[in-house]
Amino acid sequence: MASELHISISAERVFSLGPLNISNSILTSLMVSALLIIGFLVVSSLARPSMKKPHPLQNIFEYMIQGFYRLIQGITGDHKKTRLFLPFFMTFFLFILANNWFGLVPGVGTIGFRETETGTEQMVLLQHEIKTPVALAATATAQAPAEEAQLENNLVETEDAGGELGITEEAQANPEEHQTSIFIPYFRAGTADLNTTIALALFTMIMVQVIGVKYQGLGYFKKFFDLRNPIMFFVSILETVSEVAKVLSFSFRLFGNIFAGEVLLVVVGSLIPLIAPMPFYGLEIFVGLIQALVFAMLAVVFFTQASASHEGEH
């Protein structure tokens, strides 16, 4: 089975809607989003003022929200900012956590279909390699007999190699018939796709700029282009580089941890199934939780820094 192991760093296309290609990571993210929305609607329907006793599910969510509220309050130190940042924190945390853990569900990454790819380019290359000695033999008439004999030996060896590779005249005439089969899973964790993590990072940093303008006005952008003196100009350049670096660190940290965990589980599961992957499943559950919490907390930290006065920080 190890020979059939297929690991792709990019998401694979599952189907298309006109010109729009739907990859397995997009399909998983859509399913996770739908499940979260349905869960929120169910919990909100249970929270009725007329109910004398709260539903246990409502209590669980209230305890979780209260805990996260206190956590964010410890970062912002301002209840108004905490109420503003809490929805972003909860959305990031629950969406990333659900995607991370969804990738550990049995069947995700293992149930799919096989897609065939033609080997036309490879066959053309092999044909070129086979025909090259023939062309050389055609030009060998003016050479010494010893060199002509050597070219004929090369031609025979190449034809033998072509026979060993199973390249027949029919195959050379119809290279499209030589196809390779690649396994494509229907589902793949959204956070195991670099496109998703980059989108999350870009949205986060765009909201950082929006919050900065909300609290400081257009003067917020002075920290990116400060001409008061050479030192402050150099600092403003560092601030700009820092904003770009945050996007890269956000996206690659989350993608690297989740994708590496999935690869580890696939490799260990293909070598020693059933028993050996169990400890790694527990580790990935913990890593998925920590990565979701780290991403959401860093987003709140950046929101808080953008909302604070730049002059006050100095």
Describe the structure.
With 314 residues, the protein is mainly alpha-helical. It folds into two domains: 2-114 and 189-313, no CATH class; 120-177, no CATH class. The protein has helices at 24-46, 56-76, 79-102, 120-138, 145-164, 169-173, 194-216, 230-271, 277-307, 310-313, and strands spanning 13-17, 20-23, 112-118, 179-185. The strands form two sheets. A two-stranded antiparallel sheet has the order 1-2. α4 (120-138) packs antiparallel against α5 (145-164). The radius of gyration is 29 Å and the shape is globular. The termini are far apart.
Outline:
The protein is mainly alpha-helical.
Highlighted features:
two-stranded antiparallel ribbon, 2 domains, about 325 residues, mainly alpha, globular, two-stranded antiparallel sheet
Number of helices: 10
Can you give the helix content as a percent range? 55-70%
> What's the helix-strand series?
EEHHHEHHHEHHHH
Instruction: Give a quick account of the main beta sheet: strands, pairing sense, barrel closure.
Output: 2 strands, antiparallel
Name the poorly predicted regions: 119-144, 161-171
Q: Can you tell me the number of structural domains? A: 2
The counted number of beta strands is 4
Shape: globular
Structural class: mainly alpha
Strand content: 5-15%
Which strands sit side by side, in order, in the main sheet?
A: 1-2
Overall mean pLDDT score?
79
The end-to-end distance, rounded to whole angstroms, is 60 Å
Radius of gyration: 29 Å
